[in-house]
């Protein structure tokens, strides 16, 4: 297993809070969405035979940091294995995009927002996946 993080400039501001931030505060909103979601769709460029070079989106569990003050960093972490075909893609090309939506929380259903509605906040990270070392970190992030 390898622990990887998608590093990106999309989420950089204040800590996520319990209530949804105003939509115009994009960075706060991005942190909020990431903090409140457990999974996302990770798109890679496929390295598979017959799909090579095509976009390939797959579902992964995510974390935004360990519980406590070190968490809510705005950096999405994924716990990945190289047996996973998306990870095999990343070994060839680490560029990726991660989409995370409040549609997976009760928020959008409660407000009757379609997942496509911009009010059902979702964030799209673009960047590259880098390996983060340390089994301790993996336990902090995913060992609940
Ligand atoms: C990843 O994306 C960057 C642009 O951000 C590009 O320069 C680079 O060539 C890409 N890497 C590969 C392996 O295609």
Automatic annotation (TrEMBL):
Gene Ontology CC entries for this record: cytoplasm; extracellular space
Which residues, if any, are the signal sequence?
A: 1-18
Q: Which residues form the CREG-like beta-barrel domain?
A: 21-133
Q: Pfam families, from UniProt?
A: CREG_beta-barrel
Q: SUPFAM superfamilies from the xrefs?
A: FMN-binding split barrel
Keyword Cytoplasm in the entry? The reply is no
Q: Which keywords has UniProt assigned to this entry?
A: Signal
The keyword Signal appears for this protein: yes
Q: Which domain of life is it from?
A: Eukaryota
Please identify the protein, giving its name as recorded: CREG-like beta-barrel domain-containing protein
Species of origin reads: Bambusicola thoracicus (Chinese bamboo-partridge)
